[in-house]
Amino acid sequence: MAPPPAEESHRPPWRDPLLGAALAAALPVWAVLVWLQPPAAPLAGAVAAPLTFLYLVLALPILEEAAFRGLVQEGLGRLWRRRWGPLTAANAGQAAAFGLLHLISQPPLWAAAVLFPGLVFGFFRERHATLATPIALHAFYNGGFFLLYPP
After folding, report:
1. Region 119-138: what's the mean pLDDT?
2. Cβ within 8 Å of residue 113, ≥6 positions away
3. Is there a contact between 141 and 121 (Cβ–Cβ < 8 Å)?
4. pLDDT in tens, 43-80
5. Do residues 102 and 114 lie in contact, with contact meaning Cβ atoms separated by under 8 Å?
């Protein structure tokens, strides 16, 4: 993994304006989802299935981030050094694998839509050199999605 730029290396992740932007982007993303596919019973899942909520919002982000941004992206980073601006080949590779994994449980269009968040999570993995940031982002996005579209 490439270290973060010198000016970023001393800034705590929670003070990163790009992280704030990534969190704020959740609102328009959720608004577009609601516009494209109105939820049947929003907020019902957190009340009806609290263990499922905890699984999708805590356990799954930790497991997926450890696997994809930890193992896959880290491993690919040792093999692939190519970079296109802020995007690395390792990040692109793990995001593609992340999207493919979601084909197991999601329709193809939804699985493809996971590609962009995978790139964002991978970007923050590289930017902050920690899994904590992508885990937090993943949990936040999963939480909003679950509240809108409970299983």
Report:
1. 96
2. none
3. no
4. 766 666 788 889 999 999 999 999 999 999 999 999 99
5. yes
